[in-house]
């Protein structure tokens, strides 16, 4: 962690001209800069108390420009990642074996990556840059830096990691989180109902809400999901998720646990948002996928026969604040995914398997997301 912080301080501290029209050479995967950090310090690096290591910045000019596009202040970025308060390690939320760290101000996440993921990312970097530049409201993860640390000495492993925005950075606490892919096979949490809490990542078949957006937000949502999926499909990417975080505005609703929903405590079906919100800037901070005050309608599954279908709406509405974005976008449809698809197809319905080709994946993802998110007909 100390090496990482030393490296970031070094990388961000370097000044350079910023132009949004980057030359293609800036995206060259070979565009990486190695720096040695001996403990005694060097001409370019400070003395430090960690071990001797090497640090690599991938495409530094591109990431510097991305940070500018995403309106990240350099000093703020550096303080968040390199301040005295250490980064918090999250108890590995994913299956892939990656490690996750969160900055103490909750703004940034660090995820360790496999070599293959770095390769995919570098291959799509130009397209990613063009996409996020063209669409300010894009839902795809915001990436701010890609680095590698290697301890000095033979046989030392490289640790590669990416710095990205935390979707759930908010003054509101997140009470429920859903990771939605649009596939059904194995898409439930493995936790017993009684253990589900605000840190449990629930999945497609656990989803028990339809999120109802106001008309203009819904239209913008549809447009942006279409564009984002088109971009991911073109880049041959699949296995991504829509990560959704739900904050219940009424304290009574926060007591809800996964499946055992006490209907006596439901909030009725008022189309109004909760009163009593005193923050005058609240509306200024609303963006697609961030801080969106909306109504969530509870659903129930009538049958397990077709589990991929979203449950029936119940007419029970909850005032919530919603956060969402498309995460885990660095998996392409490679040979291992093709094999996984072929292998599982013998046993299961091929359309229920997560690993399908990017075109089918995007179509299924969008179909599902447009059922889980709908227009709020009671919009005032
Ligand atoms: P898997 O292989 O299970 O899909 P993974 O190790 O590839 O997982 P991700 O899918 O990227 O990891 O993320 C795992 C979990 O980490 C997510 O379900 C979510 O809870 C959390 N997470 C990932 N990225 C973000 C983000 N940008 N903001 C907030 N939470 C995130």
List keywords for this structure.
globular, 7 helices, seven-stranded antiparallel sheet, 380 residues, Phosphatidylinositol Phosphate Kinase II Beta, single chain, alpha+beta, 2 domains, seven-stranded mixed sheet, binds adenosine-5'-triphosphate, Phosphatidylinositol Phosphate Kinase Iibeta, Chain: A, domain 2
What do these coordinates show?
This protein is of the alpha+beta class and 380 residues long. It folds into 2 domains: 164 residues, Phosphatidylinositol Phosphate Kinase II Beta (2-Layer Sandwich); 200 residues, Phosphatidylinositol Phosphate Kinase Iibeta, Chain: A, domain 2 (2-Layer Sandwich), CATH 3.30.810.10. It contains 7 helices and 14 strands. The strands form 2 sheets. A 7-stranded antiparallel beta sheet has the order 1-2-6-7-5-4-3. Strands 9-8-11-13-12-10-14 form a 7-stranded mixed beta sheet. 33% of the residues are buried. Bound molecules: adenosine-5'-triphosphate. Adenosine-5'-triphosphate binds next to strand 7, strand 8 and strand 11.
Write the layout of secondary structure elements.
Blueprint: H1 2-13, E1 32-37, E2 53-58, H2 60-69, H3 74-82, E3 88-90, E4 100-102, E5 108-113, H4 115-134, E6 143-151, E7 158-165, E8 176-180, E9 201-203, E10 209-213, H5 215-234, E11 241-248, E12 292-300, E13 312-327, H6 335-347, H7 358-372, E14 373-375
Parallel strand pairs: 8-9, 10-14
Antiparallel strand pairs: 1-2, 2-6, 3-4, 4-5, 5-7, 6-7, 8-11, 10-12, 11-13, 12-13
Helix pairs in contact: 1-3, 5-7
The protein binds adenosine-5'-triphosphate (ATP).
Residues 93-96, 98, 100, 109, 141, 164-168, 177, 179, 201, 241, 243, 327-328 line the site of adenosine-5'-triphosphate.
């Amino acid at each position: 962690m100390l090496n990482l912080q030393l490296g970031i301080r070094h990388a961000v501290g370097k000044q350079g001209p910023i132009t949004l029209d980057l030359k293609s050479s800036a995206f060259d995967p070979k565009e990486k800069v190695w720096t040695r950090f001996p403990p005694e310090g060097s001409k370019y690096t400070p003395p430090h108390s960690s071990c001797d290591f090497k640090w690599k910045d991938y495409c530094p000019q591109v990431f510097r420009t991305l940070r500018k596009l995403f309106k990240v202040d350099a000093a703020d970025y550096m303080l968040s990642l390199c301040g005295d308060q250490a980064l918090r390690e999250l108890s590995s939320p994913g299956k892939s074996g990656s490690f996750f760290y969160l900055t103490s101000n909750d703004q940034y996440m660090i995820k360790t990556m496999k070599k293959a993921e770095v390769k995919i990312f570098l291959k799509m970097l130009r397209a990613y840059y063009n996409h996020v530049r063209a669409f300010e409201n894009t839902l795809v993860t915001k990436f701010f830096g890609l680095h590698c640390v290697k301890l000095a000495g033979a046989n030392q492993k490289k640790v590669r990691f990416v710095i990205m925005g935390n979707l759930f950075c908010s003054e509101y606490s997140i009470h429920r989180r859903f990771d939605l892919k649009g596939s059904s096979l194995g898409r439930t949490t493995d936790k017993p109902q009684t253990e589900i809490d605000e840190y449990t990542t629930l999945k497609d078949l656990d989803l028990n809400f339809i999120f109802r957006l106001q008309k203009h937000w819904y239209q913008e949502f549809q447009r942006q999901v279409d564009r984002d999926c088109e971009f991911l499909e073109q880049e041959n990417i699949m296995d991504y998720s829509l990560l959704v975080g739900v904050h219940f505005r009424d304290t009574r609703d926060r007591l809800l646990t996964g499946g055992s929903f006490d209907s006596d405590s439901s909030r009725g079906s008022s189309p109004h948002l909760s009163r009593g919100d005193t923050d005058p800037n609240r509306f200024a901070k609303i963006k697609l996928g961030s801080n969106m005050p909306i109504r969530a309608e509870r659903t129930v599954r009538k049958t397990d026969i077709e589990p991929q279908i979203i449950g029936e709406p119940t007419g029970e509405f909850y005032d919530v604040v919603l956060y969402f974005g498309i995460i885990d976008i660095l998996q392409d449809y490679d040979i291992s995914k093709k094999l996984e698809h072929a292998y599982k197809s013998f046993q299961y319905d091929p359309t229920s398997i997560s690993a399908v080709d990017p075109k089918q994946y995007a179509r299924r993802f969008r179909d599902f997301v447009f059922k889980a998110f709908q227009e709020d007909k009671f919009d005032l």
